[in-house]
Amino acid sequence: MAPSKTHDLLTRDDWNGAPLREVVRNKIGAYRTAGERFVVGGSDVELPQRHVLAQGMALHELATNAAKYGAPSTPAGQVQVGWKVVLGESGMRHLRLEWVEAGGPPVVVSKHRGFGTRLISMCIGRELGGVAHIDFAPEGLRCTIEVPMDDTAGIMLSPHLVQCRAIPDPRAAD
């Protein structure tokens, strides 16, 4: 249901984008309970379509894993999700989103890089030209995502675009 909710957000506005607050709420909606297990806050940010899809996937992965193994899996656990737009060193605007878990079970660090970590890195790095830092601190997982808000960043929408190159047709030499 989570991916379809993202598409619903996009179709409401002819696939032009969606507010980040709604993207976050869609991803954590299934895990919210009567108590505030998720605390959400940040400035009003309208995400372009490409950001909605990629960040939606990353947030879905964070929310699913948190519900299974992280802070919300215990009665005292809580997740704080916050964001703001900052100026990078180059003067370009970046969106910085922080996902911070606390009060859950001690975090166990895997010896190998799992599917979720790879998915988040791919969505943020390859699709948006950003960076995702995931800290498996014993007191709770912390993920900081920073992506450029410039429309020209992260133009790779497929891993095949990275590997493709023109190979001359041998018949063309005739």
Automatic annotation (TrEMBL):
Write down the chemical reaction(s) this protein catalyses.
Answer: ATP + protein L-histidine = ADP + protein N-phospho-L-histidine
What InterPro entries has UniProt attached to this entry? HATPase_C_sf, Sig_transdc_His_kinase_HWE
> What protein name is recorded for this chain?
histidine kinase
Native organism is: Methylobacterium aquaticum
| ATP-binding is among the record's keywords | yes
Q: Which UniProt keywords apply?
A: ATP-binding, Kinase, Nucleotide-binding, Phosphoprotein, Transferase
Identify the Gene3D superfamilies for this entry.
Histidine kinase-like ATPase, C-terminal domain
GO function terms (MF aspect): ATP binding; protein histidine kinase activity
The highest taxon in the source lineage is Bacteria
Taxonomic placement: Bacteria, Pseudomonadati, Pseudomonadota, Alphaproteobacteria, Hyphomicrobiales
Chain ranges of the Signal transduction histidine kinase HWE region domain: 2-43
- EC numbers listed for it are 2.7.13.3
